[in-house]
Amino acid sequence: MAEIIEQDILDYSVEVGSGCEWIGNGSEPQWNNPKSTKAYDHIARHHGPKLKPHELIGRAAGSRDDQGQWLNAEDWIIAEQLVPKYRGAYIIDFHRPIGRVYHPDRTITENVTRAFIQRNIDGTLNSGYPVVDGVILRKFNKRTGHEEQ
After folding, report:
1. Where are the domains of the chain?
2. 53 Cβ partners below 8 Å, 6+ apart?
3. Residue 109 and which of 6, 59, 102, 133 are 20 to 30 A apart at CA?
């Protein structure tokens, strides 16, 4: 069973996400659909299992940030359901391999078990990707969701 390792909740006043009243624009996202662009767009486009290794290797080298890639799109649904229903940032451990991490030096860490998840004010996930053990929230820029150097 997955567990929350670290959390930084930014707003306890309103519960958001799957199972909560939708407060965002338009219709509610399809929370149980990993292809839901409303709920998971950034994750699928930038960290999804269909990306080719050269795309993530190049992005890691160019940005100088680790780039995590999910092995299975269903895992970001599990992550959304697991993290608290509040706007904030979280590190969770699935206790099983969920992805790989491409590093700026072109090395790859396989079989990582942890993920960084950032929930928007409306409950959708504006960022979420596998990370290596030892990554802590203090290293992340709250605005961009990327590790600070």
Report:
1. 3-18+30-139
2. 102, 108
3. 6
